[in-house]
Amino acid sequence: MNSQDAPAYPLVRRAGQNGMLVSFDSSLSEASNRAALAFGSAVEALPLEGVVETMASLASVFVRFDPAELRHEALEAALQTLLTAQNWLQAPLPPGRRFWRVPTVYGTDLAPQLGEAADAAGMSEAQAIESLGAAQVRVLTIGFAPGQPYLGSLGPEWNLPRQTELTPLVPRGALVQAISQFVLFSNPAPTGWRHVGQTGLTLFQPGAAQPFVLRPGDEMQFEPVSKPDFLKHCQDDPLLGGAVVSEIAA
Description:
Elements: E1 11-14, E2 19-23, H1 30-45, E3 51-56, E4 60-65, H2 72-83, E5 98-106, H3 114-121, H4 125-134, E6 136-142, E7 149-152, E8 167-170, E9 174-178, E10 181-184, E11 189-191, E12 194-198, E13 219-224, H5 227-236, E14 244-247
Parallel strand pairs: 5-13
Antiparallel strand pairs: 1-2, 2-4, 3-4, 5-12, 5-14, 6-7, 6-13, 7-10, 8-11, 9-10, 9-12
């Protein structure tokens, strides 16, 4: 494909019989993720009969609809009109976001791949804890497993490749790292990412009114604590492990 064939963004495409995909870039960036979050929120606010759900990913928005109530052409026209409303790459992030401060134990037997990640980033373990613990990251999207966020972006020193083999199992609340991102695991699972920290967060609570604890656009900081302090947080607060949340002003 030469430059003349490259798609122009934003790009609206049909996705199956009941979906439309609006993409703001071919890859993740601060601007493309900002646009996806803001545009997804704006689609949800549209008085558009027939839209079933809207989901923002790293750089795109998927809109699922009922074709018996809403025709492809009508939805595509509505999305194209909304795209012209503003420059979505510079749009404010949607309201209702929150800031989470999460007690996290780095390394030890609870997060045994911190040393490997630190080596790959050219740091000591102490430097890695300071760097990762100071980072304030955004929930870029939620997926793979219920309530499970991709978080970023970390600095270029953390643009590490995934492992070549799987770690057989990380526990619920595991903070793993690769490709300038964190993933925070909502349930035990195998992973190709490195387990660098452990939190006490339960991200998926099926019986709750809001089963997903996090929202796309929330911001998070994983603050270092000792293993004894971490275990006490988990004992005192079994669902959130001592995490503190506050509203972010619009």
